[in-house]
Each structure stands twice: as structure tokens, then as C-alpha cells.
Amino acid sequence: MVSKWKKIQNPEIFQGNKQKKSYFEGWYFKNIDHKRKHIYAIIPGIALDKINNTSHSFIQFFDGKKGEYHYFKYEVDEFHASENKFEVCIGDNYFSSKYIHIDINQAGKRIKGDLKFKNLTHWKRRLLSPGIMGLLSYLPMETKHGIISMNHDIEGCVSINNEETRFLEGSKGYIEKDWGSSFPSSWIWMQSNHFSEPHLSCVFSVAKIPFLGLKFIGFFFVIWFRGKFYIFASYTQAKLRKLKIDGNRVFIKGENKDFSFIIKAVQGKATDMKAPSLGNMRGHCFESMKSKIELRLVDKKHQNVVFEDVGKYAGLEIMDNNELEK
Fold it and tell me: Which of 160, 153, 57 is closest to 102 using CA atoms?
């Protein structure tokens, strides 16, 4: 059996086990074809709720262009995960950081496909920061988050009811994951790697986080720009100076000792997706993949703009219960 230490140091692999009473774990694959006509989010995972006897594994399939969402259920016994590397099988479907195979035939939907991922942009692991959670990776949390690839190339095809979409040169993807017992009571999440600058990707998340009987607002913002990572996070002493929500619009200002940033995001029409609550997929998550992120990064010391760009085909979730604004 793989050690807990190895799991923490490798957040992309399956972190749980099937004996847990209230637990979820899911991997999020965002795939956009070279023509930018098709956006598919594919989310394999497991949801364990032994109190209410609702445990199952699943594959969520979200067509971001059409706003169509499907939740395909499988038995817990159909979920298999490697203990040593990121490999997950659910039924006849296979998922890893380099390749996925889809073979779904449920509820009138026939989805088949094979996608290969190349030139992955991995998170740079360190002993005290094995993932985006930093030192919090070593502590028990309601939800943990992992980044597997900020940006990569895709080759392959996906067929939905015999309508085929090919992913040729110029197709791009992003992979992340979540695991724990429940999603937070309030959060905002956004991601894009489709800017005018091809070597630019970002992901931002802020949430109301319960810890040791208290609640605090924690955030991270990761930018990958021309081969360099810029990291802002609560555990690095970075600060959110302003966060304003106005309907489907979000305005954010933040900084660390070296850089400041401004985010202006506009959410497209959102789709209701399932989310975990104590291992039960009874919660809600409203996501749009037709959103826009305006991003500006400034070098404080030299007072110059590192870049200013607009991200399209952005994923954006605004799930605030009046807990996040400042």
C-alpha cells in the first residue's frame, strides 16, 4: 500500500480509499479543439456517502459550447485507481495525465473518444509545497485542490452520438482535481489558457474555508507565462485587496511583495452541475465555459506591465453566499 507521504507528494494520484464514509475525489479535464468550436469538460470521480447509502463513481460530461451537461453513474466497484501513479478506470473508461479513453453508453448518449496529451505544463513540486495547497497539503481540510497541467496540446477525437470532433494541432487542454468531503459554502473559480499570448494560462480560486472550528477566506492565483510561474496564495502572504461581485461580473485586485494583479471576469450563461456535500453529490455548481477573463500583471519594483491580455473560453464559477466580497 502506498504511504500517505507519497500521496501528499503526488497529489495527482488517487488520494482516498473506498472505505471512507463521506468522501469525494474528481479530476477535471478541459479540452478545446483547434477551431475553438468545441469545449468539453470531462470529470471522472468517486463519491462515497455510506451514511445515506448513495456511494457511486461517476463521469460528468459538460459540453461548454452548447451548455449541455450529463452525469453518468457507475458502481463503486467499477472505479479502479493505481496507488503509484495517476491512472483511473471507471467502467470501460480510462484516465491519466497523458491519455484518456472514453466509452460511455447511458441515457441515450453514446460518447466515445481517445485524446492524447502532450507538452504538459506541470506544477513545480517542492517539499514544503507539493501542490497548489502549499503547507496546507499536510493538514486535514474540507476540500483540497491540485493542478496537474496548466497547459498542454491535445490530439485525438471525441464522438457524441456518431458526431465526431477532431482535436488537431492547436487544440489545448487543462487538468486539475479536487478531493475531500464537501465543496466550500462559498467560492469563485476561474481558468483560461486561451489568450492572444499562446504561452499564457491562469487559474484563480477563492473560498470560505472551515478549519479547526473557524472560517477564513483563502485564495490562490497561478499564472504560467512564457515558461515562468507567478504564484499568489494566502499561504505565501499574498493579499486580496479588493473582490467585488456584480451579478455575472467579478473584479479582483491582489498583490504579493513583487507583483500586483487585476482580474476582470464576465461569466457567460452558466449550467447547473453536481457538487459534493459530505460525499453526496447533492450540491450544485453553476459553471460557464463561455466566460471572459481580462488579466493585468504589474512588476511593482520596476512599475512596468508584465502583460495585459484577455482569456476566452474561460471556465467560471461564481458561488458566493455573501461571504467573499471585500
Answer: 160
Question: pLDDT tens digits, residue range 214-255?
Answer: 888 999 999 999 999 999 999 999 999 999 999 999 999 999
CA distance 60 to 284: 13
pLDDT in tens, 82-123: 999 999 999 999 999 999 999 999 999 999 999 999 999 998
Element (H, E) at 230: strand 228-233
With vertex at residue 125, the alpha carbon angle to CA 124 and CA 130, rounded to the nearest 5 degrees, is 135
309 vs 150: CA distance, rounded Å: 17
Rounded to whole angstroms, the Cα distance separating 54 from 69 reads 21
Cα dist. 90→43, 112, 297 in Å?
A: 11, 14, 41
Dist CA 59 CA 160 (whole Å): 15
The pLDDT value given to residue 28: 99
Phi, psi of 213 (to 5 degrees): 85, -5
| Distance, CA of 310 to CA of 291 (rounded, Å) | 11
Q: Is a pLDDT exceeding 70 seen at residue 16?
A: yes
Q: What is the phi/psi pair of residue 47, to 5°?
A: -130, 115
